[in-house]
Design goal:
6 helices; mainly alpha; about 100 residues
Amino acid sequence: MDNTTRSQLYKYSQRYQEIKPCYPYLHFVSLDEATIELYWSYSGQLEEMGVDMIDDNLQETLNGYPFNMESAILATIQYGNKYPFQSSRHATNFLIKALREGWKP
C-alpha cells in the first residue's frame, strides 16, 4: 500500500469518526449492526411518542424478536399518530407487545 492510499484511508477513517452516529449503548441487545442501525433510524419518531428507547424489557424483547422489528415499529408509529399514548410506559409497552406478537402496520 503506497503512502497516498494510506493517507486517504486515514482521512476517511477520521471523517467517519466525526460523522458516525453516537447512540446510547444497549446493554442487553446482541444484534448485528445493521439491525441496530434500523432500530435507531426510527428513534426520533418513537421518542417523540414517548417510547423509552433504552428500556431493559424492550432490549430483551429486541433480542428475542428482531425479525418483527421494522413492522412493529411502523405499527407503533402509525397507532401513536392516530391515538396518542398516555405515558412513556404505555408507548414502550405497546412497542414491546407489537414486537412479541408480530404486528403489522
